[in-house]
Amino acid sequence: MAVAAMYMQARQMARCPAKLSLSPTCRRSLSVSAPASGLKVLFFGSDEFADRVLRELEGNRTGTQPCIDHMEVVCPKAQYYMKRDKKVFTYQSPVDKLALKKGLIAHHPFPVSMSSWMLPMVDGGNISGQFDIGVVASFGRFLPPRIINGFKSGMINVHPSLLPKYRGPSPIQTAILNGDSVSGVTIQEIHPSVIDGGKVLAQAPYPIPPTAPSGQLIDEMGTLGGQLTVKVLRDLAFAREKSIEQDETKVSHTRLFDREDSVIVWEEMTAEDIFRVHRTFYQKEPLHTCMRIKNKVKWVQFLELTVAPKSVPPINPQFADFPPGTVFHAKKVPYVEIACLGGGRIHATRFRVSGKAERDAFQFIAGYVKAWKDKRMISHPVNTKHLTPPFAYPEGYVRPTSYTDAYENTELDYKYCTKLATKRMVNDAGYSMADEDSADDSDD
């Protein structure tokens, strides 16, 4: 934040007309280098975040006031097989797709370690020679000093966090999981030995929308990072003059996530925790848990869910008497309600059971829940030769005794709760009850 403020203040000072002397610091004598032009850029990237950064750089290159004259990309090699003389891709990075679409030359380094990869020369027809600068965004490979020093102006990196917070491979996902309200992007020098440890050239904050999934953050922060990169490239000497070292006492790191990180642990997670995990892995690795029906344990993926609004009463007014993971449903209510630790609830509307086709709440209830005696989700598979173990509450946990919000100390009729919940969800979500008229018989 301080770096962003300092950078913007300095840029405003540098642009003050000579005739204005609003403050002693705004002087014509302020030395600022001329804007860079005609840069030859080699871009390193792979994923969706890098795709958004590259789009902004390409937009500058083809715009009316470009600072980039020529650009090529370095990205992972696509994997494909031939079918009827056509390529069928099994993997192609977003950056590789964009380079192909925009007509940019793409280099595919091999091996993965980059240890023996040789830096290419410019291949641009009338433009040739050495690249001026390397720009990195979510490349996923360590770049040795030999490559960094191969550019006239070195290399810079676009990182989706406010460094030194959240160094490493998954800063956006970590920010969501931690419930952060603000993140940002950082443009930094590439450090020869410390990943994400270089000098900070510029930063820009990004307020995190409270319900936005990671994909939205990746798109918007990537665009923001690309725009900030263009500003830095326009006056790289000035940005480096004002750069600062990272405070090592404030460093935090992130890690790579895997499928286990999207498992719901009912014994540990509140409704808000579950929703954060859902936002983090949305459409990548769906949130999932287990349910036991008779002698079978099935994995259930939650494809769409929200935290139950406080204004919507529970389907069962006594839901607090049941352990977290307990499933509630009602006729014509377009969601399944599940009790959570801490007295919260989640509303799930789309499911996939053990690799089957997607189902909405009505289909899920008719196909599974009605034949399910226990009606409690479990965190992990259990031995079906024995009874499901009772729910283990955290040590020192105090269970809520009732629904304590707008309806505190009020005896609620079960049918009234169902009717009111349905009405509010229909109004809020625009759900059409006509779509379910044909499902009445299966939902009785």
From TrEMBL:
**GO cellular component annotations of the record:** mitochondrion
- Pfam families per record: Formyl_trans_N
- EC number, as in UniProt: 2.1.2.9
What are the recorded GO MF terms, alphabetically?
methionyl-tRNA formyltransferase activity
Keyword Transcription regulation in the entry? The reply is: no
Q: Which keywords label this protein? A: Transferase
Q: Tell me yes or no: is Transferase among this UniProt entry's keywords.
A: yes
Where exactly are the transmembrane stretches of this chain?
A: none
The record's annotation in InterPro entries points to: Fmt (IPR005794), Formyl_transf_N (IPR002376), Formyl_transf_N_sf (IPR036477), Met-tRNA-FMT_N (IPR041711)
All copies of domain Formyl transferase N-terminal, residue ranges: 40-233
Q: Output this protein's name.
A: Methionyl-tRNA formyltransferase, mitochondrial
Organism, by scientific name, is Coemansia pectinata
Name of the coding gene: FMT1
